[in-house]
Write a structure and sequence with these properties.
binds iron/sulfur cluster, 17 strands, alpha+beta, Nucleotidyltransferase, domain 5, five-stranded mixed β-sheet, single chain, 3 domains, 564 residues
Length: 564
């Protein structure tokens, strides 16, 4: 007997092979990669955010009880408009679906946490955070924990407490931030509502409440806002049909419609041990070139790393490359075959050096702020103590105390630069991937403008644009090919560096930070602060080791790609 296939909204943005494996009955019991703690934390944070929004909306939409017409506040149709049904998340799915259906049939104004009736014929199941009753149906509203708009104009919004899309107007201060996944989730809920007979008949709209929860952003799912003038619904329908075919073939143990291929999603996918073993067994080309390039190479008959490595880069390229160049792809394949983490793509490698050098690493917590700027001073003596200097706030973010720590960091850096210049010496500061540091340099200058010691945006720009600020990630990217990724945790060990903390990593540091500041209603954990400082110190020691290695040893230790 073939298992019934019912897919949730997530499948339309998921790897096709994952959809296959999730629905292949022969894979039941296969060992999976352990859950990623940071992903679990993100899920928990999203749940807390949703609970907060639910509470705020219930308070905001409660009847006023002073003789005023309660329905007037909601722009809704009748007495039932102000009513809420909250479907408990811990009930069995069948009970949740039953409660939701009852609420829909009774015309409840707001249904929170609903699970919609399954659409067995279409192979669809799922729910949505909020269903809002309108005049002639229900409108889905998604609550997410990311930013959904940017500064600009043109988004269709209402106040966050106004859940009626008929009141949406063109926002003069916000434009839509692209989140295709949000619209596809709304389309999934819309199709479920439609199948159950509760969708609005004349329009397909859905709302999103984001991290800032200042507005509801309304999407017209039937408007041609997608590439090629497609609608969100059309895009959703075609993706869902494809995933359904993959899942049904897997459930029926037919020829698979999706094979493994290394993509970005593999990093956090539970099936990676299975796929990695298979890709390695067949020496799949996606082990060295990901995504679209790997698919095109397979179509061109170059399915293995060996075949890619054997190509002559002076011949006609076999495909139109998107993620890399022909010669880099061939060199990466050769490096993989030789089990090399790095190869030189240039005959001479260099990194700008100074008389006085500072390695800088910033630690942030999501979008909430930058709580730590760590600096390692080395080089000529300018009357400032050499070694590691940390500028931190341990008040939970967001906090204005971040302005104090940021100003202290900037004052220290400015003093070091001024002393170096006064001594007639060359100053350089280093980081690994300046995108993150630059983001928070600018954001801190903007958010804390006017606080004592906080630089102007122009001051920040003058530093960021100067030759004094060196991004080692760029140096590595320009001069090396890295067959296992270009992250500092991959590259610095090649230079002989090791972190003291075996768990060190950006994701672990998020957990440590929560404990360090007592974010989850716990006592602040001083030991975790020390751990974060040590981790940050090791990061700047790692960039110091890396640049010294590039200057002194990489030429000897790393083969040149043309010599492979
Ligand atoms: S490991 Fe990668 S290829 Fe395999 S199912 Fe997951 S995302 Fe897809």
């Amino acid at each position: 007997m073939v298992d019934e296939v019912l897919l949730d909204a997530g499948v339309v943005t998921r790897c096709r092979r994952r959809v296959h494996l999730d629905n292949d009955p022969t894979m039941v019991g296969t060992p999976l990669a352990p859950p990623d703690p940071s992903a679990e934390q993100r899920i928990a944070d999203a749940e807390a955010h949703r609970a907060d929004i639910a509470e705020r909306l219930q308070i905001a939409t409660a009847p006023v009880g002073n003789g005023e017409d309660p329905d007037a506040a909601f722009g809704l149709a009748d007495d039932s408009a102000a009513t809420w049904t909250v479907v408990p998340a811990d009930l069995a799915p069948a009970e949740r679906a039953g409660l939701t259906l009852t609420a829909l049939e009774e015309g409840v104004g707001y249904i929170w946490g609903g699970l919609l009736p399954r659409d067995r014929e279409a192979g669809r199941r799922g729910g949505i955070q909020l269903l809002v009753r309108s005049v002639d149906g229900y409108v889905p509203v998604l609550v997410v924990r990311h930013r959904i708009t940017d500064a600009g104009e043109g988004a269709r919004t209402t106040e966050v407490t106004d859940l009626d899309p008929a009141n949406a107007s063109t926002d003069p201060d916000r434009k839509v931030r692209s989140h295709p996944r949000d619209q596809l989730r709304l389309a999934h809920a819309y199709r479920l509502l439609q199948a159950a007979g509760f969708a609005e008949p004349d329009r397909a709209v859905g709302g999103v409440i984001g991290l800032d929860a200042d507005v509801v952003l309304w999407h017209d799912l039937a408007a041609g806002t997608w590439p090629g003038g497609r609608t969100a619904l059309a895009e959703y329908d075609s993706r869902f049909a494809d995933r359904l075919a993959v899942a049904r073939a897997a459930a029926a143990r037919e020829e698979p419609l999706a094979e493994p291929s290394r993509v970005l999603e593999c990093k956090g996918c539970p099936w990676w041990p299975t796929c990695e073993a298979e890709l390695t067994r067949v020496r799949d080309v996606s082990l060295v070139v990901r995504g679209e390039d790997a698919m095109e190479l397979r179509r061109a008959g170059i399915a293995t790393v060996d075949k890619l490595a054997a190509l002559d880069v002076y011949d006609e390229p076999p495909i139109q490359w998107t993620g890399t160049s022909f010669s880099d792809a061939v060199s990466l394949a050769k490096a993989w075959l030789a089990d090399l983490t790095m190869v030189r793509r240039v005959s001479q490698v260099t990194v700008p050096r100074g008389d006085v050098e500072v390695d800088i690493d910033m630690e942030s917590f999501g979008d909430s702020g930058a709580y730590l700027w760590g600096c390692l001073l080395s080089g000529a003596d300018i009357g400032v103590e050499h070694g590691y200097h940390a500028f931190a706030t341990w008040e939970p973010l967001p906090t204005d105390d971040e302005a104090r720590s940021f100003a202290a960091f900037w004052s220290w850096l400015t003093d070091v630069r001024a002393r170096t210049a006064a001594a007639g010496l060359q100053f350089r500061a280093y980081c690994y991937n300046a995108l993150a540091e630059n983001r928070w340099l600018y954001a801190s200058a903007e958010r804390f403008a006017g606080f004592r010691g906080v630089p102007s945006t122009a001051d920040v720009r003058a530093f960021v644009d100067s030759d004094e600020w060196v991004d080692l990630f760029r140096s590595v990217s320009d001069q090396f090919l890295c067959s296992h990724g270009k992250g500092l945790k991959v590259v610095a060990p090649v230079a002989g560096f090791a972190w003291r903390d075996a768990e060190a990593g950006g994701e672990a540091s998020m957990r440590w930070y929560r404990d360090a500041v007592g974010m989850d209603d716990t006592e602040p954990d001083v030991a975790q602060r020390a751990r974060l400082l040590r981790y940050n110190e090791d990061d700047v020691l790692a960039t110091q080791a890396l640049r010294a290695w590039i200057s002194e040893r990489a030429m000897i230790e790393v083969p040149f790609m043309e010599d492979l």
